[in-house]
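[User] Could I get a sequence and structure tokens?

[Assistant]
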Amino acid sequence: MDTMRDRFAPVMARLLDEDPRVAVVLAEIGRDAFEEAMRTHPDRVINVGIREQLLVGAGAGLALAGLRPVVHTFASFLVERPFEQVKLDFGHQGVGGVLVSAAASFDWPEGGFTHMAPGDVGVLDTLDGWAVHVPGHPDEAETLLRHAVGPGPDGAAKDDKAYVRLSVQANQAPMPVDGARMLPVRQGHGGVVVAVGPMLDHVLAATEGLDVTVLYATTVRPFDAATLRGAVADLGPGAAADVVLVEPYLAGTSTAAANDALLDVPHRVLGLGVGRAELRRYGRVEEHLRAHGLDAASLRARITAFLRAAA
């Protein structure tokens, strides 16, 4: 299976062909995959070099000129390093664009902590109006990229702000994502587990045989409060409204959103994800998952302990 990032350049090449508003801005990362697109659209595929603040600023400048910029590099260099430019050049100036990241929380462990970004979604949460998409399969990445870049279903050009978080971690099969709703995957009565993006396969393995509802989320901002509320209501009379969020980034990133969704319902929320402690023996992706308790065996133990505590 190809990776989400393998899909990125071909999808963007087609979007460049289809829509004269679309532009791509790179900071060396991914440049080789765009060589043909650079020759075909030299005015709309721009490589600024290893200058991440300029990367974001140039993207916002293209938006001011009426284009739909798609800005790409590693998550730590796209959201964290040039955060001031994301905040001011896009947000303060009131323009839209699409940030597309790579390397996720720890996709390239040998790159070290400089190339890890478990806090990226939490950082964007401090800003207003950013949609956040977290695909769990390359097919979903293609769908969500097209959804983010536009045009919309009505054919209108998009000018909103969106972040698409690509990862080498992926589920075995794609789901019919739509850029808005959580999808019900399994129905139960003992609680609700929300699996975000590439966490779905781990969550399904972890909850095999448990009487829980599993929801699948690939668009986490705006948070789909209605589907979560519906799933909690469907647990049945007298059931405890226990919710577990399993996210492939900083643990607890969406607990406030889940609490807000259930404000008038007595409930408990457990946020599972990447811990704050830096793992200095970088190892492999699978080792990071285990260290953060995100492998299937660890998730099962943590989820069952939480649900058992309410019994």
The chain has two domains: 4-165, 183-310. The longest strand covers residues 242-250. The mean pLDDT is 96. The CA atoms of residues 63 and 144 lie 20 Å apart.
